[in-house]
User: Which sequence fits this backbone?
């Protein structure tokens, strides 16, 4: 494992809506090590995307980062000025969004969208930026890149658009690439190609990859370590190869039971109940209303994230439970 | 490019039935007040039978109304606008009206855009802030107030009470001129009507742009632009504004088309000698040829500007295909 490149400490990002304060991210902590592919996994509404937007400090209103620290190479990003932060976005930390249909501006050509990102961080001429843009399109394996530079997003297929979005994120060779469900809105066959591409680029560019997903299969395939989020807080952190064998949090176990597996003909078990209301989250452990192992202590006391060797878990009963995913 | 010309041609063909329908309807409605000869006879009591006969021959009043419509239509298409019932050729009267109206309308439109766009952007960016509430309240006030009331209040306050500005008209007929010279006098006469028109249409631009930008700012590509480290200025003025501008283009197109119709109420309140004022006077005087010709000209202009507006979308948005 490399050096620690990013550490999120007790991050709280709330949304101040008319219905009340939505505690979308409520005390999330984890570390990311240089060059590793890290997974962040959880259901819709678990705080995955808000965590990544918080790291970039682009949480849209009415969202606001309330407290915590985001340490990138020893410096707290939350202390930076807006101008310093702008130089980090797209240059040091970049992000690929979920839906390539909406993450590219429909009114500008591929070339113009790549150029502006290159020229936002580097003093280069238009011609140099164009050459770089061409190089990027080749890197993400877009056929006939010269012609594609002049294309508008609507003239490209979904898979091609996502490749362009990846090219844009990699334009300035960032240290960290956050991929926020990069395949959710693509056809299954295209999904595999995009995942292959991301894996290949990650190892070629020795980039730190944060893969945000709800898909445990994708976690197994692309990551070395995984952070499991539930309702805005961390349930468990573990090396990927261990978590499939010995999960410590009942939520992780439930999540794995809900994943279809081709080698085992077992019925899928959906997790009972639904993700809690984050305006008024459950007391104690937020998973307690859905947990089969709930005891009185779970309802009364919030479990701390306990670190042991390579792993961490936030469950009062993890030592006594022996959980299985299948 | 061939597609574009085909599109324009097809749209132009659609102009024909709309034009015929509007002008026929106008012809039928105005003639319901009586035919031109009856109106002239009513106004001029001492008319000789020979003159009546000449008028009847000129207006074809012995023929059915539909035939009379076609007589009008053919003369109009040949560029002959006929004679006003109040004397004089319609064509020679209309041109100066168009000039004074455009002077007023284009200034008002230019000010509405120049003030409305920045205000709309600003209040979208500072949504629900105090500034936004103030801007939105003023905009809604301007939008809700009847133009004639606002115009009369402006005259009462600025002309009658404060004596800062002239009452009405486009120019003082004789000295003393406002501000000392004939040029400052023209400007002085423009201030109140342009001000009132701007204030009234400003609201439309500001509110529409605000809503449109708020909508665009929620899109992923705005988040992606921010995440790429682009300057906020670039994110807002390049990406958000360009995506949000199309409703403004529609309204601007419509405004340009309708501006030729003048602002009948504003022009009447300020006695502004433009097309709108002339239109109202022609209606009051039952000057049928003037009403008919003005309606026809305004119809054509509105239809053509609408086509131009639609074509402009193709330049603003590459997804729009004109075929």
Assistant:
């Amino acid at each position: 494992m490399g050096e620690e490149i990013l550490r999120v400490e007790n991050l709280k990002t709330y949304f101040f809506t008319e219905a009340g304060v939505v505690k979308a991210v409520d005390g999330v902590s984890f570390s990311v090590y240089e060059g590793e592919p890290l997974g962040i996994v959880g259901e819709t509404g678990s705080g995955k995307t808000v965590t990544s937007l918080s790291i970039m400090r682009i949480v849209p209103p009415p969202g606001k980062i309330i407290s915590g620290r985001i340490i990138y190479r020893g410096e707290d990003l939350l202390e930076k000025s807006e101008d310093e932060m702008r130089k980090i976005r797209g240059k040091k930390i970049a992000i690929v969004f979920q839906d390539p249909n909406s993450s590219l501006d429909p009114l500008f050509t591929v070339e113009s969208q790549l150029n502006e990102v290159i020229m936002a961080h580097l003093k280069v001429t238009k011609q140099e930026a164009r050459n770089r843009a061409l190089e990027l399109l080749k890197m993400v394996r877009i056929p006939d890149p010269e012609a594609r530079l002049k294309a508008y997003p609507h003239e490209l297929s979904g898979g091609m658009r996502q490749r362009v979005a990846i090219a844009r994120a990699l334009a300035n060779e960032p240290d960290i690439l956050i991929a926020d469900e990069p395949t959710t809105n693509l056809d299954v066959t295209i999904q595999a190609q995009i995942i292959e591409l991301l894996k290949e680029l990650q190892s070629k560019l020795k980039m730190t990859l944060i893969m945000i997903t709800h898909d445990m299969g994708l976690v197994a395939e692309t990551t070395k370590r995984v952070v499991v989020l539930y309702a805005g807080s961390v349930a468990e952190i573990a090396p990927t190869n261990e978590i499939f064998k010995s999960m410590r949090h009942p939520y992780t176990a439930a999540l794995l039971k809900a994943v279809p597996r081709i080698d085992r003909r077992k019925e899928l078990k959906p997790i009972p109940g639904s993700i809690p209301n984050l305006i008024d989250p459950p007391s104690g452990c937020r998973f307690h209303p859905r947990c089969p192992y709930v005891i009185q202590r779970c309802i009364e006391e919030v479990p701390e994230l306990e670190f042991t060797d390579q792993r961490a878990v936030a469950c009062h009963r993890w030592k006594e439970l022996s959980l299985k995913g299948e | 490019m061939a597609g574009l010309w085909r599109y324009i041609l097809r749209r132009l063909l659609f102009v024909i039935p709309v034009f015929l329908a509007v002008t026929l309807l106008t012809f039928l409605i105005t003639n319901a007040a009586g035919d031109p000869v009856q109106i002239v006879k009513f106004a001029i009591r001492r008319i000789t039978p020979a003159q009546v006969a000449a008028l009847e021959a000129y207006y074809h009043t012995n023929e059915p109304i539909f035939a009379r419509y076609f007589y009008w239509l053919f003369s109009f298409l040949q560029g002959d606008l006929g004679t006003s019932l109040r004397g004089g050729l319609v064509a020679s009267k209309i041109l100066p009206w168009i000039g004074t109206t455009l002077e007023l309308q284009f200034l008002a439109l230019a000010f509405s855009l120049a003030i409305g766009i920045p205000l709309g952007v600003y209040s979208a960016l500072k949504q629900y802030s105090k500034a936004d509430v103030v801007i939105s309240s003023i905009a809604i006030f301007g939008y809700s107030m009847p133009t004639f009331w606002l115009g009369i209040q402006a005259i009462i306050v600025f002309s009658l009470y404060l004596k800062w500005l002239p009452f009405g008209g486009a120019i003082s007929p004789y000295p003393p001129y406002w501000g000392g010279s004939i040029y400052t006098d023209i400007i002085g006469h423009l201030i109140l009507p342009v001000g009132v028109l701007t204030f009234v249409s400003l609201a439309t631009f500001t509110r529409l742009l605000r809503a449109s930008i708020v909508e665009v700012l929620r899109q992923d590509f705005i988040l992606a632009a921010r995440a790429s480290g682009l300057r906020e200025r670039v994110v807002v003025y390049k990406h958000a504004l360009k995506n949000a501008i199309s409703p403004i283009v529609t309204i601007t197109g419509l405004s340009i088309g309708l501006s030729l119709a003048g602002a009948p109420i504003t022009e009447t309140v300020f006695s502004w000698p433009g097309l709108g004022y002339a239109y109202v006077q022609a209606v009051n005087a039952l000057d049928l040829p003037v009403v008919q010709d003005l309606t026809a000209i305004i119809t054509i202009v509105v239809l053509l500007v609408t086509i131009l507006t639609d074509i402009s979308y193709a330049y603003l948005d590459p997804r729009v295909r004109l075929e």
